[in-house]
Write a structure and sequence with these properties.
This protein has about 325 residues and is an alpha+beta fold. It has a domain at about 15-90: Winged helix-like DNA-binding domain superfamily/Winged helix DNA-binding domain (Arc Repressor Mutant, subunit A). The protein has eight helices and 14 strands. The strands form four sheets. The chain has a four-stranded antiparallel beta sheet with strand order 4-5-6-7, covered by helices on one side. A four-stranded antiparallel beta sheet has the order 11-12-13-14. The radius of gyration is 24 Å and the shape is elongated. The N and C termini lie far apart (about 80 Å). The model has no long low-confidence stretch (mean pLDDT about 90).
Amino acid sequence: MDDGPFDGIEPGGVTPTEAFSILGNETRVAILQALWESEGPMSFSELRNAVGVDKGNFNYHLGELSHFVRQRDETYELREAGKQVLRAVIAGAITEDPSFGPTRIDHRCPYCGGPVELSYQEEVFTARCTRCVGAVRGETYPRGTFLRYALPPASLEDRTPEEVLAVAHRLYDGKITAMIEGVCSECAGVVGFSVDACPDHDASGRELCATCGTRHSVWVEACCENCRYARQFVLWFAVVTNPAVVAFYHDHGAPWNRVPFAKLTRENARYVSDISEEVLSREPFRARVAIRLGDDEIHVTVDDDLEVIDATRDDA
């Protein structure tokens, strides 16, 4: 029986610098890949044969991977940290650099009904209207942008541009739903919130607000206190999955069979076109979202953790 390289080692945490150093070796990456591709745990000899290096060299490199590889009796398997590394590689975030666009697709702008154009550059997906000003402006935002964020390269594989847009909506909604609940969608760390309310908002015409450069008056940044992953979203995104709001939409004929729903599509535009936000107080923080459909309204008040503390309907 071979002596395992983890004998006497108790795996613990590693610093980011240590993690980069550990993974900066082809043999160690090959070990992780062999375990990923195997159908189950591998013995020392099976793993060494799969990697194809001499025993002494292999034993050393395997021993350096105790944070990423688990030894069970006489076999080895990936720990969750090792799986995360391989998932990042397979998703293409580390190894791929695809791009496309600008590409016109058979979709319409959620704001004006104009033509929609998609692009994907440097792992960032952008959907923009070619007719109107979109939702936000800035140096990195082409005119007409209404959806823009980092999307893994694997999302493009075997999909049409229209299908990539659908994936972008679902992934974006999934990520911010977790963040709104205070859980980082990347590392499950604790999320903190900061709210930015435009002091002199005016975007009622054909242009974005001259003060804040956006269509919406109140934005939230959710940032992980651990990995610093951050997402920005409009305040009303945080309330549309509340049961009272879902019931309000259902009573007004919303056709969705799931929540969260894609908020920035032409098909759903009538359900989100008449929404306003207002910061009621800073200490304690209170903000109110008003959603209007026809002659009916629902007013939803949230606190600084984006928890709904009141939801009141005003039906005609």
